Amino acid sequence: MAEDILAGKKIVLGVSGSIAAYKAAEIIRLCRKAGAEVKVVMTRGACEFITPLTLQTLSGSPVAMDLLDADEESAMGHITLARWADWVLIAPASANTMARIVQGRTEDLLSALCLATEAPIALAPAMNNKMWTHKATQQNLAVLSGRGNYILGPASGEQACGEEGEGRLLEPEQIIALLSQLMVPKRLVGNRVVVTAGPTHEPIDPVRYIGNRSSGKMGFELACAAVEAGAEVILITGPVHLTTPSAVCRIDVETAQQMYDAVMDISDADIVIGCAAVADYRPAEYQDKKIKKADSECSSLALIKNHDILAAVSQRKEQPFVVGFAAETDNLAEYAKDKMKAKNLDMVAANLIGKDMVFGSDMNALQVFWSEGEQTMATAFKSHLARELMTLIIERYDAKNSIKNT
Length: 406
Ligand code: C5P
Known about the structure:
By secondary structure, the protein is an alpha/beta fold.
């Protein structure tokens, strides 16, 4: 079980001021049940919602609240805790706490600790849905993710303030499951992973092209998740406005043909994940001068088919583990499974597209199929989904290799 990985881990649990602070009690209980040691740091706001005594009793350790605590041996509690922690988990993380961490503030123990620690930090946000969707919070969130912090949730549903929407703290069991996943060892060390991402642009003339709305976010998140798992990652991307994840080798392409060439150039990939929205067709002829408007009411453009990149990869003699994506507006499972068969994929991750869904969004939901099973991944940040999907890919990749080797 993934939770086993918590055994022996030293976790600093930061609790900030949210009505969900009471859930920290259950988080502590679950961590300790799984064999982790927990030390709690509370903000002043958190103490308004749950007493330090409750969390002290459950964690079996004094709760720290003040930066300059005269009772502490060296009055350097933040440094001691920062060094002690294998992981810092902040649950619930309020909008205020997130903002303070972004700014690198140090007037309270929790934010000072986040600045001082080298341990990975996971935050489980909890707040009113308007506060959550506010640009300020979303920008803070982007900064936190960009710095390599892990964001767990939030969930959506009925809120304590009576409103409905995103911003609820994930349930303690979900938080522990995700934290455990993050602690999973680097199982892809020595493996080469190729990820395709973004759209392709198929030029019509020097001014125009055929393109699509793919933002590339999911592919970039998958590249991050593969790096986290220890892989050497090559990210082949169409035109996108995204920053290259650290430790990733990025190859920029424009057309489907260029993407095909770049992918086929890599003969020793262990895993290929086709997340790009590759144009199925390109203009039959490129006009090197801008096409002028004609008098007629109608015009047509002849198209020819592009190579199917994944189908070609999965026909290779040394076939890597091949994962495809399927964005569908209907009949999701049926079309996705057909695609898996037609392209000879090891796995297909399908998502329903429609109004406000998927393209350009930071959120997504997936239904993943492979020959012996399927798994549903509920709506979440693409960064979170990418890690969940990567865990499943590694599992199936290992299973395929163990069959090959017997
Ligand atoms: O056939 P369709 O475009 O629906 O399939 C989507 C999946 O196939 C995605 O994983 C996409 O990256 C991949 N694909 C490809 N080459 C193409 C078209 C799609 O690799 N020419």
